[in-house]
Design goal:
InterPro entries: 6-PGluconate_DH-like_C_sf, NAD(P)-bd_dom_sf, UDP-Glc/GDP-Man, UDP-Glc/GDP-Man_DH_C, UDP-Glc/GDP-Man_DH_C_sf, UDP-Glc/GDP-Man_DH_dimer, UDP-Glc/GDP-Man_DH_N, UDPglc_DH_bac. The chain is an alpha/beta fold. It has helices at about 20-30, 40-50, 60-65, 100-110, 130-145, 165-170, 180-190, 195, 220-255, 255-265, 285-300, 305-330, 355-365, 380-385, 395-400, 415, 420-425, 440-450, and strands spanning about 10-15, 35, 70-75, 85, 120-125, 150-155, 175-180, 215-220, 335-340, 370-375, 390, 405-410, 430-435, 460. β5, α5 and β6 form a beta-alpha-beta unit. The chain binds nicotinamide-adenine-dinucleotide.
Length: about 475
């Protein structure tokens, strides 16, 4: 299953965050020799010790299995020996919503002096504004004595992995998009051959899904590949906001959004996924990429009202939770509110644009006292959210004890499995705001029996 010596290539991956580490693990598993490079020396030291700086299921074990094929460095000189160089650095939003290309520029300028006279492919996996591939090529031309268009190829290969399921998404992708000059795309296709043909042995922790065959391969121009990533994220964001908009009306007319989503999702043209109503999207990508696309439109004098509406609906959802709490508790001042889940979604410790952040901030501003729990992201919250005021709960039960309400802000599996009827008895009021719709209806019915607030449903489900 491992590549023969001849087809195994030397790869450098620039940036060892969520995408970079996933890429290192994937390519090493396919049989390539991979060096992960980061300017963050502490991160590289950690990786050298065998510690993985992020929480991603299966990643540490896959990297450990491939340890003999994987190296870590802060030194761009390794680029000289590389057949393929991946750029996986961050592209956070800048002040006007357009992505900040500081790290992309840093990577290109770091790579350039070390390009050699062998043929090398530079693959961009970061999500970047349309035209960035050309911009990177110009930087390489300007800063490299060896750059030669007939030997050096810039290819866009957007990343579609989701945090929490990164390895499965990388090993068994729906599609691989590669944009650029045909020779560059052909070289990347060769690197990915075991992935495209699915000839590698699936790792024990991440088995191949039964129905999975092989990825679709989409070859495009550089610009189309860059656009595909933005458009894909924008469409998914739109789907969630659409579900949330319909959910708001469902509540008013007495329909059940979960039934409605099932009904519309059963249409093959629509599909059931990304129709979950709730607290809305968060994370490092949807907010940034929808804003990025709008700001690209603005640059060309082209308004994008559908996307803007999707963003507005998304942030309105965060306020809906507060309004529901107010409806039941009247004033929030002095109330104890338990928030279950800090990470923007389950199975990750990523806190970027997590709805829980806004929620805690608003609750504190309204003088409620917040007790928060997350099974994984708590230490990270301590570091990254020092400006927020809340009490840490070691487990969900302590969070709920004597609380006036609990908000389920992240759909961690362990929250589904809690003994809710027993926990409700420990609360001051049995009010659940299930902002992720994790509790199924039969259970809710059971919880309502514990209600002490009369006929108006104490177990409120925020859609
Ligand atoms: P991240 O912030 O987790 O990691 C980026 C890493 O790049 C950091 O370790 C940083 O130290 C390093 N870095 C910055 N400048 C560098 C330089 N000049 N040289 C070497 N290393 C440098 O980011 P991420 O979440 O992995 O995202 C990376 C890119 O992939 C972004 O463009 C993002 O939009 C895109 N993306 C992310 C996801 C996701 O789920 N996180 C999914 C698809 C695409």
């Amino acid at each position: 299953a491992v590549l023969t010596h001849e087809s195994s290539q030397q790869v450098v991956v620039i940036g060892t965050g969520y995408v970079g580490l996933g890429t290192v693990a994937l390519l090493a598993h396919l049989g390539h020799r991979v060096t992960g490079l980061d300017i963050d020396a502490a991160k590289i030291e950690q990786l050298r010790r065998g510690e993985v700086p992020i929480y991603e299921p299966g990643l540490a074990s896959l990297l450990a299995q491939q340890a003999d094929r994987v190296h870590w460095t802060t030194d761009y000189a390794v680029v000289a020996q590389a057949d393929v160089i991946f750029i996986c650095v961050g592209t956070p939003p800048g002040p006007g919503g357009a992505p900040d290309l500081e790290f992309i520029t840093g990577a290109a300028v770091g790579i350039a002096p070390h390009l050699s006279d062998r043929s090398q492919v530079l693959v961009n996996k970061s999500t970047v504004p349309i035209g960035t591939g050309d911009f990177v090529q110009r930087l390489l031309e300007e800063h490299s004595p060896h750059f030669d268009e007939t030997r050096h190829f810039v290819v866009s290969n957007p990343e579609f992995l989701r945090e929490g399921t990164a390895l499965g998404d990388s090993l068994y992708p729906d599609r691989i998009v590669m944009g650029g000059a045909p020779e560059g795309v052909a070289r990347l296709t060769a690197l990915y051959a075991p992935l495209i043909e699915q000839t590698f042995a699936p790792p024990a922790e991440t088995p191949r899904p039964e129905s999975y065959l092989r990825p679709g391969v989409v070859g495009t121009t550089l610009q189309s590949a860059e656009m595909i990533k933005y458009a894909a994220n924008a469409f998914l964001a739109l789907k969630i906001s659409f579900a949330n908009e319909i959910a708001g009306l469902c509540e008013r007319v007495g329909a059940d959004i979960q039934e409605v989503a099932t009904g519309i999702g059963a249409d093959a043209r629509i599909g059931p996924r990304f129709l979950q109503a709730g607290l809305g999207w968060g994370g490092s990508c949807f907010g940034k990429d929808t804003q990025g696309l709008i700001s690209a439109g603005r640059e060309y004098g082209y308004p994008m009202p559908i996307l803007q509406a999707a963003i507005d609906v998304n942030y309105r959802q965060r306020q809906v939770v507060i309004e529901k709490l107010q409806r039941h508790l009247k004033t929030l001042k002095g109330k104890r509110i338990a928030v279950l889940g800090m990470a923007f979604k389950p199975n990750t410790d990523d806190l970027r644009d997590a709805p829980a952040h806004d929620l805690i901030q608003r609750l504190h501003a309204m003088e409620a006292s917040v007790v928060a729990h997350d099974p994984v992201a708590m230490p990270r919250a301590r570091r990254e959210w020092p400006h927020l005021t809340y009490t840490e709960a070691p487990d969900p039960a302590s969070a709920l004890r004597r609380a006036d309400a609990v908000v389920i802000a992240t759909e961690w599996d362990e929250y589904r499995g809690l003994d809710w009827p027993a926990l409700l008895l420990t609360m001051r009021r049995p009010l659940i705001i299930d902002a992720r719709n994790v509790l199924r209806s039969p259970l809710l019915a059971q919880i309502e029996q514990f209600g002490r607030e009369g006929p108006s449903s104490p177990a409120e489900t925020v859609h």
